[in-house]
Amino acid sequence: MALRNDPIYRALKPVTQNVFYLDNLHDNDDLNQKMPFIVWHIVSKKPVNADNKVLIYQVTYHIILVTKKRSEALMHRLESRLNEKELPHRMISSYQNDDYSLNRVYEVQIITKGGY
């Protein structure tokens, strides 16, 4: 279920080996032992245009980078990778968890034929 052929997953995998899809139950096993990690999920998938053969969707993703402490190098590597793959992104939130780990949330919107 991790949508291995999704363009976001393919872009994130070289950043860190610990890339997890939010709704995949197999990815939810004791994540704190694998920091830093990235959790991503699809927030919305809206049809933009339709004809009898092809549907086009605007897909919004959230990508959450979770680290034990602030890592400028990892943040830069993630943002560079998204730029390299021409995935328009913006940081929408950054916050600290109760265990003092840090979350940095990015939003990516792409237009796709929805073939995954």
Main features:
116 residues; STM4215-like; 5 strands; single chain; alpha+beta
Give a summary of the structure in a few sentences.
The protein has 116 residues and is α+β, with helices and mostly antiparallel strands. It is 16% helix and 42% strand. It has helices at residues 7-12, 72-84, and strands spanning 19-21, 37-50, 55-67, 89-96, 102-112.
Which architecture name does CATH use?
A: 2-Layer Sandwich
Number of domains: 1
Strand order of the largest sheet: 1-2-3-5-4
Gross morphology is: elongated
Tally of separate helices: 2
Might you state the CATH topology name? Answer: STM4215-like
Structure characterization notes:
- By secondary structure, the protein is of the alpha+beta class.
- The chain has a single domain, classed as STM4215-like.
- It contains 2 helices and 5 strands, in the order H-E-E-E-H-E-E.
- It is elongated.
- This is DUF3168 domain-containing protein.
Detail the topology: elements first, then pairings.
Blueprint: H1 7-12, E1 19-21, E2 37-50, E3 55-67, H2 72-84, E4 89-96, E5 102-112
Parallel strand pairs: 1-2
Antiparallel strand pairs: 2-3, 3-5, 4-5
